[in-house]
Amino acid sequence: MTFPQLISGQLAQYSARRSEPSRHREHFFLGGDRQAHSISNQPLLVWQLRYSGLNDAEARAFRSFFESLTVAGEFDFSDPWTGETFTSCRLASPAIDFIVDRDQRYSLTLEVQHAA
User: Among candidates 39, 32, 40, 54, which has minimal Cα distance to 100?
Assistant: First the structure.
């Protein structure tokens, strides 16, 4: 399954963010000391995508994409900056919420995650 594109052919709109958050856990001790250790050796990539002004067709494409995800919820995602395709990506949230304005334009925020 592949992530939907906008009618313009783009995968993201302006104000999208890409990050590589660290995957570690910290333990704090009474004396003020702390210890950190890695949770996983696999890097994590996160794309925060904000869409606004989507028309009916674009909103339907996102809704049908979300509804067609299997139980595992994995899909292919192309990085909007590099064009590199990542397999086995997931949405961070188990639900998507559309906001509709008075002009019947839709807004949506998604977080796509890929653990290598």
Answer: 54
Q: Is 15 left (phi over 0), alpha (psi -120 to 50) or beta?
A: left
- Return the amino acid letter for 81: W
Nearest to 56 by CA among 14, 106, 10: 106
Structure tokens at 74: 């994995």
Q: What are the pLDDT digits (tens) for 1-41?
A: 778 888 888 888 877 777 766 655 677 778 888 776 566 55
Hey, what are 8's tokens? 């313009």
pTM flag (> 0.90): no
Exposed, middle or buried, 103 (CB in 10 Å: 0-12/13-18/19+)?
Answer: exposed
